[in-house]
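Hi everyone, sorry if this is the wrong subforum. Our group has a chain we'd like a structural model of before ordering constructs, and none of us has done structure prediction before. Sequence below.
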Amino acid sequence: PQEAKSFRRCTGYVEQFDTQSPQLTVRETVEFSAKMRLDEAIPVESKQKYVDQVLQMLELDTIGHLLVGSDATGGLSFEQKKRLSIAVELASNPSIIFLDEPTS
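Answer:
Right subforum, don't worry. Here is the predicted structure as tokens:
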């Protein structure tokens, strides 16, 4: 039997529809997830390095300064938003990640 709390901490789930804040940049979005979900005992510098690795792995490092935006105001492409959603979940360093229609 799996404890609900520990299971949530070791898994990540990327929804089909992206729900990122349009007012934040790509980097701020991933940093927020890392700061909120990684253990408090991890030094800020280590969290920052991990965020850098996630952004680079998903090829978001070159657009880290761009606002997420929205359909109405412009912003990231559909594909970039999908990779950002994956990055947000990877920022919590899960053992398992579930993706709901990642190529939609």
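For your construct planning: Helices lie at 4-10, 26-37, 44-57, 78-90. The first helix runs from residue 4 to 10.
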